[in-house]
Amino acid sequence: TPNEPIVDFQIKLECLEDSVRSMDGGVIVAGDFNARAIEWGMTEPNSRGRRIMEMTARAGLEVLNTGSTTTFRRPGYGETIPDVSFATEGLVPRIREWRVIESYTGSDHQYIIFNVTEVPYAPCCSRVSPPRWNVSKLDKTQLISVVTAGQNIALSECECGNEQEKAEVIVEKAMHLLHDACEVSMPMKRPRHNKKRQYWWTDEIAQLRREALRLRRLSMRARANNRADAEIKAEERRMAKKRLRQAIKNSQAACWHKLCDEVEQDPWGRGYKVVMK
User: Fold this and answer.
1) What is the pLDDT of residue 155?
2) Cα(137)–Cα(261) distance, integer angstroms
3) How is 147-211 classified by DSSP, letter by letter?
4) Average pLDDT per run of 10 along the chain, which is 277 residues long?
5) What are phi and psi of 24, to 5 degrees?
6) What is residue 274's predicted lDDT score, i.e. its pLDDT?
7) Which residues 6+ apart lie within 8 Å of 147 measured at CB?
8) Residue 222 CB contacts under 8 Å (≥ 6 apart), including other chains
9) What are the C-alpha distances in Å from 109 to residues 98, 100, 145, 165, 205?
């Protein structure tokens, strides 16, 4: 809800990020986030919108919303775009015809529909993907320094020609300056590849990890709200982490011995692949 404390909102975002990272294949996330960001058509971003975009950058999600058609319409409250759709990078080329339905819904929210194709959309001509930077590792000091140093130089080169030519030169210089500033202030973003499951990973470990993450969120929430049971939640979190580490250690040891036995039977089998990975 819009009145939810920002701490609780951040905890939910972390939970969502953990869930996306734990899933294999393409992932679609959609919902009413009650946040504002330029990326989905809101001209005045807020803290929640910035936190969402930082999370999506880490999780490899991209915004599917196109245009600026409002999705929330209530008489007397104005119109906004709280409903946002995301998809993992590998799935985005398969998303087609994202749009807001104007039909009556009986709700304050409009329906959103889109198609997921079997194969990625292939345009008639090849298109070079624009560079992508990891904004979560942005060095604001370097960014400001480069932009400040370059803006005066760029403006000094725009003193000739008519207004249209001058505007075109300013835009070109500004784009080059922003590109250079981004290169200096943050690393390039690497494409997210789904990793294969470790040979020692088990369903029991997966369940223990989910439990550890759940207790971590409960502990963070209790500590942020200064609740009386904060220490109890923290201890439960520590014990869950201990159980998870022990389960991983036991599984690794057992699977390693099994791999060693398999090598005796098949030198070029799974044991060889694990060692040479």
Assistant:
1) 57
2) 44
3) HHHHHHHHHHT--SS-HHHHHHHHHHHHHHHHHHHHHHHSPBPPPP-PPPPPTT--HHHHHHHHH
4) 82 87 88 92 89 88 91 86 92 91 88 87 52 82 85 62 72 83 84 65 88 84 80 90 92 86 76 66
5) -95, 150
6) 67
7) 177, 178, 181
8) 229, 230, 233, 234
9) 16, 10, 43, 44, 40
How far lies 181's CA from each of 138, 145, 237, 267, 271, in Å? 10, 8, 41, 51, 46
How far apart CA 145 and CA 185 sit, in angstroms, is 9
Structure tokens at 53: 């975009």
Predicted pLDDT of residue 259: 80
Q: Is CATH 3.20.20.80 what the domain over 6-116 is classified as, yes or no?
A: no
Query: Of the candidates 60, 64, 33, which has an alpha carbon nearest to the alpha carbon of residue 49?
Result: 33
49, 44, 38: which is closest to 78 by C-alpha?
44
Cα–Cα distance for residue pair 92/40, rounded to 1 Å = 15
Domain limits, the chain: 6-116, 135-185, 203-276
pTM, full prediction: 0.52
The pLDDT assigned to 86 comes to 96
Per-residue pLDDT, 111: 93
Geometric angle at alpha carbon 70, from 7 and 49, rounded to 5°: 25
> Residue 19 in contact with residue 59, Cβ under 8 Å?
no
